[in-house]
Amino acid sequence: MENKMCNTQKKRSLVLFLIVSLVFGVLTTFITLGGDDLVYIHRPDLSTIYSKWVYVYDAYFTWSSRVLINFVWMVLIDMGKYAWGLYFAISLFVFFYSASVLFNPNDNPLVNEFIIVTVMTFPFILICSAGWIATTTCYFGPLAAGMFSLIPIFRIYREGKVRKKEFVLSAIMLIYASSDEQMMMVLLLCYLVAFIYFVVVKKPILSVLFQLFLCFANCAIVFLSPGNSVRKMAEIRDHFPDYLMMGLDDKLELGLSTTLKWLIMDGHIFFIEFTLIIAILIVVKYKEPLYRVWGTVPVIFTVLYSVMDNSALKLFGSMKSLKEAVPFHGDINATNGGKGLAVLQLTVMLIIVTILYFDIILICDTIEELLICSVLLIGGTGSRVIMGFSPTIYVSGFRTCSIMIVCFIFVTVFLGSKLLPMVKEDAVVERSLKWLFPVTTILLMLNYASLVFGYFV
Questions:
Q1: What residue spans define the domains of the chain?
Q2: Rounded CA gap, 245 and 226, in Å?
Q3: 274 Cβ neighbours under 8 A, 6+ residues apart
Q4: What would the pLDDT profile of 77-109 be if each residue is shown by its tens digit?
Q5: Do the beta carbons of residue 330 and residue 320 sit within 8 Å?
Q6: What is the pTM of this model?
């Protein structure tokens, strides 16, 4: 009887995931193409599948190592917006499904609704930045594939084995996802840590070892690509002439400053939700005032800086500098010498990060939970910080934050899966959430619709 109920709940959740994904897919068929998509659409020299493959293969030696990702992009461009809408719907469904398998093994319906809402906090405006199809196939789709490819780790951890179909599909997904350099870094870290952990606790390692081999193989493909070096020099010449004058510490600081400023102080819904869930868990778990204050500082800081504009911040004197954009060469540069108010922004952001990580340590009940949060947060944040070592850090824009965003979203889902079962103890709160999640889903859909219909008008 209990198994029947679980199967029914699982089917309902999958149907819900599918409906929401299809709605988003339908909405995306109304997009207006722009950016890089217009450069490659219906090109006579790229009219066949073979010619597209030859083009992206040659680009491996002259421009980019993303052979598989670029090939999918080239194919989708000429198939039209309906094909792209289907691709986007499938990617979104894979996100929902992956989050549910990873963090909701008991198929709690409330957690699955929370997954939908949390995944939809992704700032979809980033998908418009280089062309809808280009950004989706180069970032959003590989991200979904990458998160799905983590399923074998959690299957082995919980069940001691991997289902054959999931193993094969996750391997294919991993090959596709790790064609993206940033996603490759996150997957390599995840599988390396998982391999070491499974060796220590004596769990089966062959499946993880195979996936780890694929990660290293893709890593080699990326770093051995002559095209990446060619592009790097072209980007330095065209967009960042001072890049070669910066030391390794300068590039690290540039990547760190721009990443933390965008993440913490620009008022993104996904990050506010992340800090809010942490605060609630700390308040629920601990009665000590010091821990509760410590747990609520990040969400209070984030919300205040999200709603206060520069005119309001003038009342706080030097605190206004926290809201200002990071200088082109980073907070610490040759002009300010790393002195005075120039480093105030970076210092405050690092304090917030330290408090957040301490909060996560307080929340996690086991070393495994801490490993999950640490690997995703460090890997995700690191995937954007390393953009400081690329001359494309500015020309690529903040779509390079996409991997980091998804990692934060998945950690939020994980933390939410710890919080929501506690709701059953309060019938009023549970009923409220059953109304809140659907309403929020509809509002986020409307937000996406406004983006689709209004961005290129």
A1: 246-425
A2: 23
A3: 408, 409, 411, 412, 415
A4: 888 778 889 999 999 999 999 999 999 988 888
A5: no
A6: 0.92
